[in-house]
Amino acid sequence: MIRLEEIDKYYSSKFQRIFVLKGINLEIEQGEFISIMGPSGAGKSTLLNIIGLLDEPSEGAYYFYDEPVHKLKEKKKTEYHRNHIGFIFQAYHLIEDLTVYENIETPLLYKGVKGKERKAIVADLLDRFNIVAKKDLFPQQLSGGQQQLVGIARAIAGKPNLLLADEPTGNLHTDQGKMIMDLLKQLNEEGMTIIQVTHNQEFANYGSKIINIVDGMVEE
């Protein structure tokens, strides 16, 4: 499903290149649950952003379903975002002037899901995350934990083939964190490929494989 070959990400200053990622080689099969770990500043979020087509590598090749992503036009990347990839961001990235309901509904509108089906999917997610009472509130009226739950509901609404999660439990208390990890496990068992970045060893163990990133490189 995903193949990274000799991926570098660097920024050039006057006299040198500052590497964020160096020589990353990675293969991820459909249906895997991968946990990426490593110290702060190791390049974990950058790697996730490259896999999620939100950032581009400086060098190297990236294949998604055997398509060379490094050669794709923006239109095709947008289509992948719309139909294949869900993203749970550490900083929520909810749309401030949309309600909880509308935020969750957004990816379904992009996918062209019919009204009746949209309603059913959103209602199910509101119920599953125990946020029915919050559906007409705006993001700024929610706590950090509640915003994170809405962000997760939005990410999985369109049933993406690939779910990328950047510290999905970072702003949640332990019980909420476990609930989210159990949900991710269930989605993975239903066939969704999941790649998460986490600092939490217990939550990393939910994955079928743990990849350690140190100083921008995959540690063997």
Report on this model:
By secondary structure, the chain is an alpha/beta fold. Helices cover 35% and strands 27% of the residues. It has seven helices and ten strands. The strands form two sheets. It has a six-stranded mixed sheet with strand order 6-7-8-3-9-10, with helices on both faces. Strands 2-1-4-5 form a four-stranded antiparallel sheet, with helices on one face. A hairpin with a 2-residue loop joins strand 9 and strand 10. Helix 3 crosses helix 4 and helix 3 packs parallel to helix 5. It is globular, with a radius of gyration of 18 Å. The mean pLDDT is 92.
What secondary-structure arrangement, pairings included, does this model have?
Layout: E1 2-12, E2 17-28, E3 33-37, H1 44-51, E4 59-64, E5 67-68, H2 74-83, E6 85-88, H3 100-111, H4 115-128, H5 144-157, E7 162-166, H6 174-189, E8 193-197, H7 201-204, E9 209-214, E10 217-219
Parallel strand pairs: 3-8, 3-9, 6-7, 7-8
Antiparallel strand pairs: 1-2, 1-4, 4-5, 9-10
Helix pairs in contact: 3-4, 3-5
Number of helices: 7
Q: What is the terminal separation in angstroms?
A: 21 Å
Q: What is the radius of gyration computed over CA atoms, rounded to a whole number of angstroms?
A: 18 Å
Uncertain segments are none
Could you give a short account of the major beta sheet?
6 strands, mixed
Q: What does the average pLDDT come to?
A: 92
Structural class: alpha/beta
The number of distinct β-strands equals 10
What is the H-and-E element order?
EEEHEEHEHHHEHEHEE
In the sheet with the most strands, the strands line up as 6-7-8-3-9-10
Mass-distribution shape: globular
